[in-house]
Every structure is written in C-alpha cells, then in structure tokens.
Design goal:
Layout: H1 11-22, E1 37-41, E2 44-47, E3 52-54, H2 70-82, H3 93-105, H4 119-133, E4 138-142, H5 151-156, E5 172-175, H6 195-206, E6 210-213, H7 217-220, H8 230-240
Parallel strand pairs: 4-5, 4-6
Antiparallel strand pairs: 1-2, 2-3
This protein binds pyridoxal-5'-phosphate.
The site of pyridoxal-5'-phosphate has 14 residues, from helix 4.
C-alpha cells in the first residue's frame, strides 16, 4: 500500500516518506527530519535542497580521507572500467598488490590478509580465526558494542535495537564498558582505580579462556580509551588466561 504524498512535499520529505515505505524498518534514520545527503566534497556535504554543511560526522569510510577524495575515486573509477568482478578462484594483480602493501606496513608477523566486503564479515572472520588458533571458544565483548548484522555479530553486539528476534550467544559475554562520561560503576577517574578494567577481567575468568575482546565501543567513545591504560589492563588480564585479543573490523 503506498502512502499519500503531501500536496506541497519537498524532495527531502518525499525521500524520507519513500524510505519508510520501501526499506525495511531495521534501516532507521536519525532525527524526525533526517538530512537527505545529495553530494559531498572532502569536508563539505550538500543536502538535496542544496544546503551546504561542514561535515563533522562523516561516515566510517570518509572520516579519515574526506568525501569523494579524488585520489581515491579516480582509482575506483579506473578499476571499475578495467575489471569489475571476478571470482576469488582466480588471482589478480590488484588484490595481491594491496595484500603486499598491507604486509609491508603492518607490524610483526602480520603478513597475510583476508579481504571482506563488510565489517560484519570481518568480525566473523576474526572470531573464526581466533577460535581456530586458540584452544578457546569464549568471546568477551563490551556492553554498548556494535559488531554487525549476522547471527554471530548480533550476539557479540550489546545494543538491544540491533539484537532483534533474539540471539544465540553461546560462549559470548559482555564486560562493562569503560566510559568516564557516564561511568557504569558510578565512579570518577582517577579515584576509581580503573575499576571498569578490573570488572572486565572476571568475565574472562568466569568463561574460562577468552578469545576476543571487541573494540567496537571505541568508535562511539573515542575519548575513553587507551590513555588511561584500560585496554592494556584488560589485555594483560586476558593474556594471563591464554586469551587472544581481536581487533574490530572498523578500526
Ligand atoms: C564498530 C563496528 N563494527 C562492525 C560494523 C559492521 O559493519 P558492516 O555494516 O559493514 O557489516 C560496524 C558498522 O557500523 C561498526 O561500526
């Protein structure tokens, strides 16, 4: 059933209305009147009505390099014109070149790459790999973490709106999130003695040997991180129990 357009509907209103009509409600927008993005260039973004914004939010992919950075888009355009899709059953020059470059710039023994098309798949692969190389099965994630939309990533996620329809979370526990602004333990740094990190360690202990601590929360809470030594503390705690620490897909 289609919705009836208002007589004086703006283009933004039309797109928001059709978004609700034709896209699953799982894909929600922020705000009652969401900004309908039209085009962008580096730090600027224009909405469909032509208003220009200095973009302080960006997207995960644009946050570091700007919108439509010509250095990047020109390479993408060249590749799409040259060779768009093949099976991974055959090698090609560019996938090997990228893997080689990553091997050169990553530390230590990190020499081999596995490419995925989404953060969800990257997290799936990280968990699979961790479980394969470790005798452990359990995963410690953090409250408020978002790890993706697959069944497993949904279980690692700890935000109710993204865990709809129930989850099967065998071997997954969620540790308290280090968040000074609204401390879940109602404490203040430094008097707290980094109690949040200590609270994470028992969860590794409770579930035996833990294989992965998701860093998802770091995206949302960029200020609440390593400078106060919490990651190191949790990391060390898990290592004592033969755990591994996995990176998050997006970071
Ligand atoms: C921290 C984090 N992990 C995982 C994901 C999942 O990525 P994707 O939507 O590409 O599957 C996201 C996506 O927003 C994310 O922010």
């Amino acid at each position: 059933m289609t919705t009836t357009p208002k007589m004086t509907e703006t283009r933004s209103e039309e797109i928001v209305r059709k978004h609700k009509e034709f896209i699953w409600p799982a894909v929600t927008n922020y705000y009652q009147k969401p900004l309908v993005a039209d085009h962008a260039s580096m730090q600027y973004l224009w909405d469909i009505e032509g208003n220009k914004y200095l973009d302080f939010f960006g997207g995960i992919v644009t946050i570091g390099v700007g919108h439509c950075n010509p250095k990047i888009t020109s390479k993408i355009k060249d590749q799409v014109d040259k060779l768009q899709h093949t099976s991974t059953l055959f090698p090609n020059e560019h996938i090997v070149a990228l893997a080689e470059k990553i091997a050169q710039i990553t530390p230590g023994k990190l020499q081999k790459s596995f490419f995925t098309s989404s953060g969800t798949e990257a997290n799936e692969a990280a968990i699979l790999l961790s479980r394969m190389v470790s005798p452990s099965f359990d995963i410690v994630s953090l409250r408020h973490a978002y790890s993706g939309g697959s069944a497993l990533a949904k279980s690692v996620t700890a935000q109710a709106p993204w865990r709809k329809s129930g989850v099967v979370s065998v071997g997954i526990s969620h540790a308290v999130n280090p968040y000074c602004y609204r401390c879940p333990l109602h404490l203040k740094y430094p008097e707290c003695g980094v109690a949040c990190a200590n609270a994470a360690a028992p969860s590794a202990q409770d579930c035996g040997r833990s294989v992965l601590v998701s860093r998802s929360h770091m995206r949302w809470l960029p200020h609440a991180g390593d400078q106060q030594g919490r990651h190191g503390k949790v990391h060390d705690g898990n290592c004592e129990r033969d755990g591994l620490r996995g990176p998050d897909s997006v970071l």
